[in-house]
Design a protein that fits this description.
Elements (H helix, E strand, L loop, with lengths): L20 H19 L5 H19 L9 H14 L3 H14 L8 H11 L1 H10 L5 H21 L1 H4 L9 H7 L3 H5 L6 H21 L8 H24 L12 H12 L7
Helix pairs in contact: 1-2, 1-3, 1-4, 2-3, 2-4, 4-5, 4-6, 5-7, 6-7, 7-11, 7-12, 9-11, 11-12, 12-13
Length: about 280
């Protein structure tokens, strides 16, 4: 098991209250569809952006009560119904499309600030939409949700070097690479990682773990089953971080995977979460 952001929020699981399963599933299918348009297949970046714009236009047409593109009509009909039923904030869904469009060209990032801005649009909307469905709007809960979602997105980056780098995709920032003396272009070209890369990754893992632990108290703000779902997500993310840390720097070349014993550890850690700790 690895961490993938869109597989780590509750998709109509048994822990999710039945009344919230339809909107959560609708959000998931919308995000998954757009993500696949931006990332799957052999289309060029320009073609991917055009497809995402067509999806956006079709979605907006559905919101106006006009016919949607047949490719996405069923998915969009469900999304619009749940949007209207639950007053889902439109800007959060728009942010997701903006982030997927940005991803089409495999951009390189100069700074963590730029990377965090991408996470703000690609990951944080999911958590905020879930909090909206639970009627939780206080600023502290939103900040904690953003921290968890950003951490999950970053974990996805740090576990996927072996998948992303051969495709020309890299989320190591120029500033981080320069600070640790890492040649990002050489790493993308297949250079075997050494001490500098290991130090860079250790730094990134510390940053990401700090974000996850900053957001973890949110599990105590969410009611019932949703709080337990989030405990598993938080502890699963921390376990993947620990696995990457143990493999460093080999995780640049081999994707980390969780095993059976890890699941037991995640469950035990989730049960033991206290208000003063993660």
């Amino acid at each position: 098991m690895s961490v993938d952001h869109y597989e780590n929020f509750p998709v109509a699981s048994w822990l999710c209250p039945p009344a919230l399963r339809p909107p959560i599933t609708a959000i998931y299918h919308f995000a998954r569809t757009a993500d696949d348009l931006a990332d799957e297949g052999s289309a060029s970046p320009e073609q991917r952006r055009a497809l995402l714009q067509q999806l956006r236009a079709s979605w907006h047409a559905s919101l106006r009560g006009e016919p949607a593109d047949p490719r996405w009509s069923a998915m969009l009909a469900t999304l619009v119904r749940e949007q209207q039923r639950h007053a889902l904030p439109q800007p959060l869904l728009e942010d997701l499309l903006d982030a997927f469009r940005q991803d089409c060209g495999n951009p390189l990032y100069d700074s963590r600030a730029q990377l965090l801005d991408y996470c703000r649009r690609s990951a944080n909307p999911i958590g905020r939409l879930l909090l909206h469905l639970y009627g939780l709007h206080d600023p502290l809960a939103l900040r904690r949700s953003d921290a968890i979602c950003t951490a999950l997105q970053l974990i996805n980056f740090w576990q996927d070097f072996s998948v992303d780098h051969p495709r020309g995709r890299c989320y190591l920032t120029a500033e981080d690479c320069a600070r640790h003396g890492v040649d990002r272009a050489a790493l993308l070209a297949g250079q075997v990682p050494g001490r500098a890369e290991a130090a860079l990754l250790a730094d990134l893992l510390d940053w990401t773990e700090g974000l996850m632990r900053q957001g973890a108290p949110l599990v105590h703000q969410l009611p019932g089953r949703m709080g337990w779902e989030l405990r598993a997500v938080v502890q699963g993310g921390l376990r993947v971080l620990a696995t990457i840390r143990r493999m460093n720097p080999h995780s640049f070349q081999t994707r980390p995977q969780l095993r059976g014993a890890d699941w037991l550890a995640i469950g035990w850690a989730a049960l033991r979460m206290r208000r003063s700790s993660t």
